[in-house]
Design a protein that fits this description.
Length: about 260
């Protein structure tokens, strides 16, 4: 029987140098190193160093406090954006995915035009926004928080304004686990088992909720967007160009809808 590894074996495994045909134990050590280590990048001074001493929930609370502390300044920035952007397009929860031509908004620490806590009413007048896009945001919130944010979006959108939402398709992952486990391991390459690939969409990346097409449409309906429709990734029936990020197409379910009058 081989000796079990100690913790240093996991710390030394690099997420970037896994062979294409790893053994199960090598793949497991790579997986632990990648998903249980402190990694990332932030625009906030010293934030990357804090990752090693603060839990994800503590870092999130710190970001929220820092963002809320800047709300007066953010409102002034929002007023300038309202005056200068036609049409006014909001990319909410942008993180590091920056969309040219859109107002990119998120908590401090991302690549943003506007630092804002999405759980607070958006700093724009009622019925002033032409389009809102949220991609891989709502899985980081409870369903009640998502309904709260969608309420802010509905208030800010013009009648006929477009809301487009994309979330990781947990239903697709569940179906692959049930029907094609080897395909799931190929789709999420390097995972030692299909279950490790499945759990990511439910538990990894600070996810707290899960969606399929049915659930996404139900949440949108509950929030006052009753006519939302699922649309293929990279295409839009309501916008000149779909703002979706191509590296997310394969695992994302998208829906879009116009704000009712």
């Amino acid at each position: 029987m081989s000796q079990p590894p100690d913790s240093s074996d996991y710390a030394e495994a690099s997420p970037d140098d896994l062979d294409h045909n790893p053994g199960p134990h090598e793949a497991l050590r790579w997986y632990i190193s990648k998903y249980e280590s402190s990694y990332g990048q932030s625009t906030v001074p010293f934030a990357d160093g804090l990752r090693r001493v603060l839990s994800p929930s503590a870092r999130l609370r710190a970001k929220i406090l820092a963002t809320d502390a800047q709300s007066a300044r953010a409102r002034k920035i929002a007023a300038g954006l309202l005056a200068s952007r036609t049409p006014l397009l909001l990319h909410l929860g942008c993180g590091w995915h920056y969309l040219p031509g859109w107002v990119n908004a998120d908590l401090v620490g991302g690549k943003v035009d506007l630092a804002w806590n999405l759980l607070r009413p958006l700093p724009f007048p009622d019925r002033s926004v032409d389009a809102i896009f949220l991609e891989h945001v709502f899985e980081h919130m409870t369903y009640s928080q998502t309904l709260q944010v969608l309420g802010h979006c509905r208030r800010a959108l013009k009648p006929g304004g477009v809301l487009r939402v994309g979330v990781p398709d947990a239903g697709m992952y569940a179906a692959m686990y049930s029907e094609d486990r080897e395909g799931l391991r190929t789709f999420r390459w390097g995972r030692a088992t299909a279950m490790l690939a499945l759990r990511e969409v439910f538990q990894e990346h600070a996810h707290v909720s899960a969606y399929d097409a049915e659930t996404l449409l139900l949440i949108l309906d509950e929030a006052g967007f009753p006519d939302a429709a699922i649309t293929p990734a990279g295409t839009s029936h309501l916008l000149d160009k779909a703002p979706d990020f191509e590296d997310r197409w394969s695992e994302t379910v998208y829906a879009e809808v116009t704000r009712p009058v």
